[in-house]
Design goal:
The complex is a heterodimer of chains A (320) and B (323). By secondary structure, chain A is an alpha/beta fold. Chain A has helices spanning 6-31, 46-54, 69-74, 79-86, 120-134, 152-163, 183-186, 211-226, 255-262, 266-276, 282-305, and strands at residues 61-63, 140-145, 168-174, 177-178, 181-182, 203-207, 232-237. Chain A has 11 helices and 7 strands. The longest helix of chain A is centred in the first third of the chain and has 26 residues, at 6-31. Chain B is built from 12 helices and 14 strands. A 7-stranded mixed β-sheet of chain B has the order 3-2-4-5-7-6-12, with helices on both faces. Chain B has a 5-stranded mixed β-sheet with strand order 9-11-10-13-14, sandwiched between helices. The chains are: A alpha/beta (320), B alpha/beta (323). The structure holds thiamine diphosphate (TPP). Thiamine diphosphate (TPP) sits between chains A (66-67, 115-118, 145-148, 173, 175, 177-179, 244) and B (29, 58, 60, 82, 86, 89).
Chain lengths: 320, 323
């Protein structure tokens, strides 16, 4: 495998920072009552989406989850359009009809965040089938949680993708919890990747807080998939910093556990590596962070200055 | 009597039934310490422990199917899905398994389970978390369907649902969880299939369900100020449906408006309207009018969601269109 060059590495740093700052802003705006509905933050898990999407081409596809902002941004989603959508404005990605849980951009392969846990698996299988059918050599990455791995839809998707040798990269984001339910109560196994054996596909466990580990594992799975050798299952061990959704009091887990994971923050860890290997200077990284912050500020302004949809728009887009 | 919320009333019903009957247990995602997605099972885990308040993996099929199996084997499960919208994942277990067992097995099996599911729009939860799906359940013989609008009804109906020997789909409106009302301390069941007149009137019958009962009552006030006396009828259950209370009201008022939050097309209102047309057409002085949501998914953005949900204004307009 070819080692990622500096451009790719800095791109990854920028993406992780973008997700971090975007969501930190959202956290504030949600608390201030500016955002309706549910918001599920991805804070702490940035390395997974970032490493995975860096291994994909723009023409490749992803399916996402209710915790989808990170996937969307990593795949190249537009900050302004995302922010406006989450604010419910008519200028948003989905004209305000979707909100946080239903952002899509088919032009860059984002087949949609999803409000149904386990909903993405079958969609990814279908998308990958279209690649095989049209012989595009494209792939589809399917992000799903540890909780979602227990849905029948997920098992059915693993099976079908393997039986048909479809180019799906199943990326399990194991943050240890499905809402309040710890993994130990929802399954008897420790590694979800073990399930790959039952479907005769490679299954690997990696450190989901190490963006390069994610990048490497997904790159290998993508190469396999492009060669027509079928799907892979990659389990990324990670942790979500916030509650399941904003407003969750998190009674089901300890402060200590959170602190332990915060110490493994994927962003400073990657920054340190970049500096230590002489790939970038701290000044360069600070510059990236500052420009990302400015972009986000502009996105917030765009969202807040945008109009709400008009009631007359209600029946638009029901049928194509 | 005490003033309680709809949510507390539901919680009361489960607690009292669990205290009364060892066979009653709760099963669902995050129903334990977390207390349920909307807090309806709060405190039950602390009181009854893990044996009787069971957190499951995220597996709606297994929740509904396991409830059906446990019920067939003699227990009385109260299963919760976080949102009615997730029933699609588990539909086979409900409509081909739970709903069919009694009939298919020649009356030998009983499936005394309750499936509680919040529905409805109004919290910015968008298309996959806001639907009103009661019509789907009405269409399947073998299950009963409760759709309470007040705290007292929620409690009384849930008690009956738990004691009933059939699968009961229990549809709660998430906006109603915080609504307060008088609730008796006793565990007094309300017979499934008995509607209630929420407000008496003589000029027009408004049959409404769930959140729309409250809109209908508001509409009735507005109409009263304009000299029109509306009777608001809440069937409370859609299966069995209290036809008598609806027909008797129509026979008195000679006019009918049916209001629900679900999309109007093929909604529960269509069934009620057709039933009245079949059985009491001669009593009607005007065509039946239905009020329901427009034929589109529930949108996210607040102004669009507001435009989606039918309210008192539409009911008032519907009544006025009769004259
Ligand atoms: C079919 C379905 N069941 C339940 C839910 C409610 N729900 C939303 S997110 C979630 C937990 C998902 O856990 P996991 O897959 O591990 O993802 P994470 O939230 O940890 O990222 C649940 C139960 C849902 N949205 N869809």
């Amino acid at each position: 495998m070819k080692h990622p060059d500096k451009k790719v590495l800095l791109e990854m740093f920028s993406t992780m920072t973008k997700i971090r700052l975007f969501e930190s802003e959202l956290q504030k705006f949600f608390a201030a009552g500016k955002i309706p509905g549910f918001v599920h933050l991805y804070l702490g898990e940035e390395a997974v989406a970032t490493g995975a999407c860096a291994a994909l081409k723009q023409t490749d596809m992803i399916t996402s989850t209710h915790r989808g902002h990170g996937h969307c941004l990593a795949k190249g989603g537009d900050l302004k359009l995302m922010m406006a959508e989450i604010y419910g404005r008519s200028t948003g990605y989905c004209k305000g009809k979707g909100g946080s849980m239903h952002i899509a951009d088919f032009n860059i392969g984002i087949l949609g965040a999803n409000g149904i846990v386990g909903g993405g698996g079958p969609l990814a299988v279908g998308a990958a089938f279209s690649c095989q059918y049209k012989d595009t050599r494209g792939v589809c990455a399917c992000f799903f949680g540890d909780g979602a791995s227990n849905q029948g839809t997920t098992q059915e998707s693993l099976n079908m993708a393997s039986a048909w040798k479809l180019p799906v990269i199943f990326i399990n984001e194991n943050n240890g919890y499905g809402i309040s339910c710890p993994q130990s109560k929802s399954m008897a196994i420790t590694d979800i990747a073990d399930r790959a054996a039952g479907y005769d596909m490679p299954g690997v466990v990696i450190d989901g807080n190490d963006v390069l580990a994610v990048y490497e594992a997904v790159t290998m799975a993508v190469e396999r998939a492009r060669k027509g050798q079928g799907p892979s299952l990659i389990e990324c061990k990670t942790y979500r910093w916030r509650g399941h959704f904003e407003g969750d009091a998190c009674v089901y887990r300890s402060e200590k556990e959170l602190e332990e994971w915060k110490a493994k923050d994927p962003i400073p860890r990657f920054a340190k590596k970049l500096v230590e290997t002489g790939t970038a200077t701290q000044t360069e990284l600070d510059g990236i962070t500052a420009s990302v912050a400015a972009e986000i500020e502009a996105a917030v302004k765009f969202a807040e200055d945008s109009p709400f949809p008009k009631p007359e728009d209600l029946l638009e887009d029901v049928y194509a | 009597m005490a003033i309680k919320t709809y949510l507390q009333a539901l919680n009361d019903a489960m607690r009292q039934e669990m205290e009364r009957d060892e066979n009653v247990f709760i099963i669902g995602e995050d129903v334990g310490k977390f207390g349920g997605c909307f807090g309806v099972t709060q405190g039950l885990f602390d009181q009854f422990g893990e044996r009787r308040v069971r957190d499951t993996p995220i597996t709606e099929s297994a929740i509904v199917g396991a409830a059906a199996g446990a019920a067939a084997a003699g227990l009385r499960p109260v299963a919760e899905l976080m949102f009615v919208d997730f029933i699609g994942v588990a539909f086979d277990q409900l409509f081909n398994q739970a709903a069919k067992m009694h009939y298919m097995f020649g009356g030998k099996a009983k499936v005394p389970m309750v499936l509680r599911m919040p529905q409805g729009a109004g919290v910015g939860a968008a298309a996959q978390h806001s639907q009103s799906l009661e019509a789907w359940f009405m269409h399947i013989p073998g299950i009963k369907v409760c759709i309470p609008s007040t705290p007292a009804d929620a409690k009384g109906l849930l008690i009956s649902a738990i004691r009933d020997d059939n699968p009961v789909v229990f549809l709660e409106h998430k906006i109603l969880y915080g609504v307060e009302g008088e609730v008796g301390d006793e565990a007094t069941p309300i017979e499934l299939g008995k509607g209630e007149i929420k407000c008496e009137g003589t000029d027009v019958t408004i049959v409404a369900t769930s959140l729309m009962v409250h809109s209908a009552l508001q509409a009735a006030e507005t109409l009263a100020a304009q000299g029109i006396s509306a009777e608001v009828v809440d069937p409370r259950c859609l299966v069995p449906l209290d036809k008598d209370i609806i027909l008797n009201s129509v026979k008195k008022t000679h006019a009918l408006v049916v209001a629900h939050e679900a999309v109007k097309t093929a909604g529960a209102g269509a069934e009620i309207a057709a039933m009245v047309a079949e059985e009491a057409l001669d009593y009607l002085d005007a065509p039946i009018v239905r009020v329901g949501a427009p034929y589109c998914p529930v949108p996210f953005s607040p102004p669009l969601e507001k435009a989606y949900i039918p309210g008192a204004d539409q009911i008032v307009a519907a009544v006025k269109s009769l004259r």
